[in-house]
Amino acid sequence: MRPALRTMTPRPIVFLLSFLVSPLALFASVDPGLLGLVPAETVVLSGVDATSAKNSQFGQFLLSRMNGSDSNFQNAMEQTGFDPRRDLQSFLFAGFGPRQAQGRSKFAILARGTFDEQRIASAAQAKNGATEQSYGGLTVYVNKTRNGRTTAFAFPDTGIAVMGDLATVEEIIDHRSTPSSLDPGLVQRVNKVGSTNDMWFASLLSGSALGTNPSLIFGQQLNATQALKAVLQASGGVQFGSIVQVSLDATTRSAQDAGSLSDVIRFLANMIETQGQSNPQTALLAKAMGGMNLQRSGSDVLVSMSLPEQDLEQLTQLQTQVKPHAR
Predict the structure, then answer these.
(1) Core-most of 72, 127, 210, 268, by most CB within 10 Å?
(2) By residue range, what is the domain housing residue 288?
(3) Which whole-number Å values give the CA distances from 162 to 19, 140, 229, in the listed order?
(4) What φ, ψ does residue 65 adopt, rounded to 5°?
(5) Same domain, 84 and 38
(6) Structural domains of the chain, count
(7) Overall average pLDDT of the 8-30 stretch
(8) DSSP-derived 3-state class of residue 277
(9) What Cα–Cα distance (Å) separates residue 198 from each residue in 24, 90, 193?
């Protein structure tokens, strides 16, 4: 389930964490040190083990597509001294539900790597007018976005950078000596999917946070409102290799709701298989869906599928080709 989160990332450190919107964001693992800094009210987590990712076959494919020929990428590297292909070790994204956010843009991005702190700070101040504040014995760099929201970043320890709204960054700094206590259910899901997958997510965000019009996500043919609202928790992952393994585990309110969600997934799979006859990108998804294993266990819905790594490379290439035309 995709949470209704709004992340506002200031220009000063966006490049430092540019992989968040790059193909490298497909990789994830658990960094215990970063996990201990995550605010207690977190309901969505995802992470990256960039070091491990670079050694996978698909990771090598993605790295081969990243180069310094892009002028913005090159300029950012020169200004900050940070090259995510070389300097990034691990990454964690923490999201907060609507109630926790209370109408504010609330998020946290944490990264472990090699950072030239002074050079990054200087670039932020020069290009975006970031100002310095002191909190917990550290320097916090604060930036106001065009819509008036306040974002910040800091370096709570050597080799660790954090970014988010100002209040969340300060909360993370507070956890340097006392690790936060995350919801046990979230921790359990993180430990399960993070230990067995290269890519994972874990969420306690109810499906009702998607709103009342899921047709915007699945298309007008699929009325999935009640099925999505019934989801209470979800997690999933991708394990890379010559055969890529994909899994999803969703917990619903009841066995009946699990049945409804299973029906929605089957409908979506059938729709993709039908459209795959005329769309090469969808055809690759349809190939994976054809071997999908869908099971129910009480109120849980378990989905798994696999596809050859070469198919994933081809799917990535096709997605890149159509992206400029997407609106």
Answers:
(1) 210
(2) 206-320
(3) 14, 10, 32
(4) -90, -10
(5) yes
(6) 2
(7) 41
(8) coil
(9) 11, 12, 9
